Amino acid sequence: MDPHYDAQDVARCDLCEIAIVQSYCDFCHVNLCKPCIGEHISDDYTKHIIVPFQLRRSTPIYPKCKTHPKRACEYQCKDCNIFLCTDCLASEQHNKEHKLSKLEEVFLQKKDQIHRDKKELKEEILPVYEEISTEIKNQIANLDVDYQKFTTEMLKHREELHREIDNVMDQREKEIDENKLKHLSILSKHLEEIKQLQSLMQESLHNLNEMEDSNEVTLTIHYSSKNQEFSKLPPKVIVSMPKPIEKEELCSLIGKLTPLSTTLEERVFTAKKPNTSVRELLDEPEVLNTIKTGHEKLYSVTCLNGEEIWTSGRTTADIKCFNTQGVLQKTIKTKSGKWPNDIAVYSDGALVYSDWDTRTVYKVKNDQTEEIIRLQGWTPIQLCVTSSDDLLVTMYSNDKTQSKVVRYSGSTVKQTIQFDEDGQPLYSGDAYTKCITENRNLDICVADCKAGAVVVVNQAGKLRFRYTGPPSSTKKEPFKPFGITTDSQIRILTSDWNNHCIHVLDVHGQFLRYIDNCDLKYPTGLCVDNDDSLCVCEYKKGKVKRIRYLK
Q1: Span 165-211, pLDDT tens digits
Q2: C-alpha span between 84 and 221 (Å, rounded)
Q3: Which of 239, 277, 354, 357 has the fewest CB atoms lying closer than 10 Å?
Q4: CA separation for the pair 341, 299 (Å, rounded)
Q5: What is the mean pLDDT of the chain?
Q6: DSSP 3-state assignment of 219?
Q7: Which of 410, 417, 412 is nearest to 394 (CA)?
Q8: Are residues 88 and 227 in the same domain?
Q9: Which of 470, 486, 477 shows the shortest CA–CA distance to 522?
């Protein structure tokens, strides 16, 4: 027990060690009673930060400015990646056109990320490694039983064969024992690797605990998450058992045991669905703000987080990125100079877009463009990056008679979804828009514009339902779904081009309500940011409306 705490766990002053603590120095990390405050700050009052004990470790300690030592830095230059004080900003030494961030905002964002990473590492990633470790331990525990069964089978064959082959059988028993040792060695080595990774994660968790409690700005600002690295699970070791010997074989026909074979089966970490509280729909959704994109025919919108909103249109090769206030951050041009069919963003921030002219999907990262998918006989339409960083691509055949959804891992095809269980096409066979998204329950949702339906299949590609509009519609025009997205509540939202509104569905395809009071005109692309704010493209106006629709 801490010597400054008695049996009732009452904190004591660090200076007199008698009085009950009432204050705390957030700079020196010292417990203080009222009489001892004066003694503590007597050397240099300006550097101490005295706060009530209940608010300890709540005051950010900003780094001192290297140019103006008496000033604390309150800003960070994004272009130079340095800290600046107000005197630096007032002087002529720093380029005033550079983009600045408030350290307080960055500090709080990083604190939030640290908290989330700590929770994810402790509650999601580590338990998966525990399961893997237990699985390997069970394999090791069952080795004796499995190999004893194999040895028993060998002995039965041995009894049925003539005495002349006894020597051969003895040799085979020896090989079995050797294989067992190799098998045990392989699994033990893999278990040791798992334990090393677990140890690294425990160390990282310890560091996150310290950083979460720390109010050192510099240390927190330079924090970099390792969770994505840990989320790449180790491959699953599959060691094949030797093939048994058939009793009909004699001596030369017995042959040798097949060598111990080891294959690695890729594991993919899938984060658990967040245990979020239910967020009800607002009675009256409200427009937070409107972003003027400059696109004459605004088509697609996507966002990775609440900070960057990417847009593309049907008349220009420009793919534009805005912040939530509508300020243009950057512009990327397609490689072919043609407008893109669709855009999406990977978890690492890399942009991906489909090019109908070259029938190619490109990835853009650090201003470098690379071709990741080139199709023959098919044209890519819409895109969706899944929770596991796979890429879902809707596409149509060159003769425009077939459509399908293909899942890619990098450039490798992992899955094709085209027909239902009766062999009938799931999607209309044409070049019309087929926007796609993945729900948090891993359902794949497609807005089939030509068919007038939202088609939802499960992760395996089996049809769950089709939504063709509410049971009793108050709208005059036929349902024409265009954009589609999902939110944290596993609801499905799809834009209705004909009726200038958004349909909100539950996870089972039941109509919940319209979003139709926000003066929407010809809504196309949709996306939801990490705060469940809905971004809606208005095709003809070239505007993105950010709408709050949840309580």
Answers
A1: 667 677 878 888 888 888 888 888 889 988 998 898 898 888 888 88
A2: 14
A3: 277
A4: 8
A5: 86
A6: helix
A7: 417
A8: no
A9: 477
User: Around 31, how many Cα atoms within 13 Å sit in the side-chain half-sphere?
Assistant: 17
Q: Are residues 198 and 153 in the same domain?
A: yes
| Alpha-carbon gap, residue 304 to 310, rounded angstroms | 9
Domain containing residue 518: 281-550
How far apart CA 14 and CA 22 sit, in angstroms, is 11
- In whole angstroms, give the CA distance from residue 151 to residue 407: 45
2 within domain boundaries: no
Strands ordered across the beta sheet of 523-528 = 281-292, 543-550, 533-538, 523-528
* pLDDT (0 to 100) of residue 119: 84
Q: Rounded to an integer, what distance in angstroms lies between the CA atom of residue 359 and that of residue 341?
A: 10
Q: Are 525 and 436 in contact (CB under 8 A)?
A: no
Q: Which two tokens stand for residue 244?
A: 């048994």
**CA distances for 497 relative to 44, 367, 468, 505, 521, angstroms:** 67, 34, 14, 17, 8
Question: Which conformational region is residue 367 in: left (phi greater than 0), alpha (psi within -120 to 50 degrees), or beta?
Answer: left
R_g over Cα of the chain? 31
Tokens of 454: 């939202």
Confidence at residue 510, expressed as pLDDT on a 0 to 100 scale: 94
Please give the Cα distance from 107 to 105 (Å, whole number). 5
Report yes or no on 271 lying in a domain.
no
Structure tokens given for 254 = 């017995």
Residue 184, C-beta contacts closer than 8 angstroms, at least 6 positions apart: 140, 143
CATH code assigned at 319: 2.120.10.30
The verdict on 380 and 443 lying in the same domain is: yes
438 within 8 A of 478, measured Cβ to Cβ? no
Cα separation, 384 vs 352, whole angstroms: 9
Distance CA 323, CA 301 (A): 13
SS3 content of the chain, % helix, strand, coil (to 5): 25, 35, 40
Residue 357 tokens, joined? 């002219």
Q: How many CA atoms lie less than 13 Å away from 359 in the CB half-sphere? A: 11
Question: How far apart (Å, rounded) are the C-alpha atoms in residues 114 and 93?
Answer: 34
User: pTM of this prediction?
Assistant: 0.54
pLDDT in tens, 235-245: 888 878 777 66
What phi and psi, each to the nearest 5 degrees, are found at residue 125?
Answer: -75, -50
- The three-class DSSP label of residue 144 is helix
The beta-strand segments (E) located in 328-367 are 328-333, 342-345, 351-355, 360-365
Q: Using CA atoms, how far apart are residues 53 and 545, in angstroms rounded to an integer?
A: 45
The domain boundary, picked from 102, 134, 155, lies at 102
In terms of Cα–Cα distance, which of 105, 47, 97 is closest to 76? 105
